[in-house]
Amino acid sequence: MSEILSGAKTFLFVPGHRPDRFAKAAASGADVVILDLEDAVAPDRKEPAREHVRAWLEEGHPAIVRINAAGTAWYHEDVASIGRALAVMLPKAEDPAEIDSLAGRLPGVPIVPLVETAAGIANAVAVCGADAVVRPAFGSVDLAAQLGVDHRSHEALRYARSALVVAAAAAGRAAPIDGVTTALDDEAALIADLEHAKTLGFTGKLCVHPRQVAVADRGLAPSESEIEWARGVAALVGDGSVAVADGQMIDKPVEARARAILDRAGEPFRPAG
């Protein structure tokens, strides 16, 4: 399960109280479906949503479940309903002890902390380092609201995004999943968000509509120029010594980046010789 979550690029939310959309989400092409019990579900629909989610999971369908945050009136019942989930997404994640407590109630279930508060960003290394965490996700909209900035602004949230990328790497976790693009009918905005996130080191995207999935999948994939560059590096790597190509030094860190690019492209890294 951890391998699936670590390598997935697209994560599609579907409201937990809309079981009519579950199969459509599963057929959307998204790498992972997220059944949402939190923001997408009104208080009076929380219990029916739990039942729909529980039934879907019991039928053997793989999905992450986004529960309500710890401290809310719905948290404990949400946790009890997860059962056979692929993973659980914990909103407002900012305390590693809270993550450990959740993991204790769900042995063997990976946790995706949704880091979407100032405290969560400040504690990001500890949050990512909790034992059950497989990779973090970035909650851009909630964080922007707390900070009083526009969630669509790349500049306003650049530090927070970079901090989460660094924290995930420091904790030895997979690179983070970027937050949602709320402009459902603006493909240019989605592409711009993907390019920005990819530049900072994100390798996944939270999607809120099926039509965003294919765009996100393409946007997060290595470009042809990146793949060609990585192949070129592989062709020059031989005995592990430093090499030079087109005036650029190729050493172990450069080789590591090339390996990562080809891995994401599904290609083997074939050193010279």
General description of the model:
By secondary structure, this protein is of the alpha/beta class. It folds into two domains: 2-220, Phosphoenolpyruvate-binding domains (TIM Barrel, Alpha-Beta Barrel); 224-264, no CATH class. The chain has helices at residues 2-7, 22-26, 46-58, 75-81, 96-105, 118-122, 124-129, 140-147, 158-170, 187-200, 211-220, 224-236, 252-264; strands at residues 10-15, 32-36, 64-66, 87-90, 111-115, 137-138, 177-178, 204-207, 243-245, 248-250. The protein has an eight-stranded parallel β-sheet with strand order 6-5-4-3-2-1-8-7. Strands 9-10 form a two-stranded antiparallel sheet. Helix 2 links the parallel strand 1 and strand 2. Helix 12 (224-236) packs across helix 13. The longest helix is centred in the last third of the chain and has 14 residues, at 187-200. It is globular and about 65 Å long. The chain starts with a helix and ends in a 9-residue tail after the last helix.
Provide a brief overview of the structure:
With 273 residues, this protein is an alpha/beta fold.
Structural class of the secondary structure composition? alpha/beta
Shape: globular
The CATH topology of the largest domain corresponds to TIM Barrel
Q: What is the beta-strand fraction?
A: 5-15%
Rg, alpha carbons:
19 Å
> Helicity, in percent?
40-55%
Instruction: Give the topology string: H per helix, E per strand.
Output: HEHEHEHEHEHHEHHEHEHHEEH
**Name of the top-level CATH class of the largest domain:** Alpha Beta
- Tell me the distance between the termini: 35 Å
Major beta sheet, strand line-up: 6-5-4-3-2-1-8-7
Report the uncertain regions: none
Number of folding domains? Answer: 2
> For the record, what is the CATH homologous superfamily label of the largest domain?
Phosphoenolpyruvate-binding domains
Q: Architecture of the largest domain in CATH?
A: Alpha-Beta Barrel
Largest sheet: 8 strands, parallel
How many β-strand runs?
10
